[in-house]
Structures
1.
Amino acid sequence: MLVHGARKLDADGIVEDFWFATDGAVISATGTGDDWRATIDGHDVTDAAGGWLTPGFIDLHAHGGGGADFDHDAEGMRRALAVHRSHGTTRSVLSLVTAPMDALCASLGAIADLAREDPLVLGSHLEGPFLSPSYTGAHDPTLLVMPRSEYVNTLLAAADGTLRQVTIAPELPEGLDAVEEFATASVVVAVGHTAADYRMARAAFDRGARLLTHAFNAMAGIHHRAPGPVTAAIEDERVTLELVLDGVHVHPAVARIAFAAAPGRVALITDAMAAAGAGDGDYRLGSLDVTVRGGIARIAGTDTIAGSTLTMDAALRIAVEQAGIDPVAAVAALTLTPARVLQRADLGLLRPGFAADAVLLDVGFAAQRVWANGRPLR
């Protein structure tokens, strides 16, 4: 394919009248102006008509969409993925909420099977069961377990090489050992749903954790005498901070602080549950009932936020228009930064040699066309 007449926006900057061409699943050439005409033969040509063109979005943390979740069957997973792909997410890590160990193993196996079929599925994320009882969020506290080595090995085996991320409260007994075990197995370890203080978070990063699960949520905030895990993550250049920027989880002013304090190390995520793209109503998140009203998901009968109904193009729009984040930095947070978290050097930029994943957006940053591996998704 060949796309021309775009306003390119990626971590390299903004380029007017941009074009790119593909050879199979890879970007083969880029340029500006009318140079694209020399490579037109054999290409399916799209005129971007001055729209924003970004790399495909990479979501490190999402639980579902379209009325379905990632915890059960492949059909539901595909339905949820279709919603997010229509909004620009070309690569996804599928997140699982806390569940009994046998159920988690079954879900990990199902995601492993799907990932082998579909290269756009990057693998799985265990957001439980190794969480603090004091910061459960939308996880069933009765299903939490301690991060013992036997559980670590069981989950790694069930995922069969496709476990990409695990969230751990490192202060739990054997928590730091589990951080190191997972990191040694090339799993990205995230500190989250945690009562860890500043020192414990630093210890976890020194043992191999490289991510902070939805920063500011399900953890202590920044206090002038108790800096907490967010400050520890901001200070450590090895660590990336996930951020749910939906206007509910984090105030736009706090998002500005995070982007300024950790440039290039904020990854925007959706943390979306089944209601994303499906509207208000009653849903399930793992074993818990969730009510969605006005696009805000809460555990039924409580004020506890239960994931989001966010899509990645909406996160970009909120970042730029409400939080005032520079568009280049905002797009990097959906593309190059998560690619680096996953150590995928072929994703996140519109350059020759990179995967042919791209999103064409209108002036309001709503996805209009989406391509992945050189093929149209929308």
2.
Amino acid sequence: MKALLTISLLILSNTFMTLAWYGHLKFKELKWFENLGLISIVLISWGIAFFEYIFQVPANRIGFRENGGPFSLVQLKVLQEVITLVVFMIFTFLFFKNESIKVNHLIGFGFLVLAVYFIFKK
């Protein structure tokens, strides 16, 4: 149960992180954001990133083995990285349709999946 809760919170956290880090690249397409300066965009992104932390911190606390969770620190980090990539890819497919995924991207993703395998291997 803690593993599923941790992973769910990491997915939510990474959704907000991706919106904060890359969502602003689409702001210029929205009428009320088109004239905002960089400082305004940074502040909006920080506001979005606040929600990332609301989910990330509990995910790590719940999931960390020394707090009674199922994952070591290294396992938590690798899970977070793979979840970040999956969320980022979904975000890219939905909002940046002009971006393409190439074979080298898929190979890199495969290596990250292998990293998860080796990190969790006993």
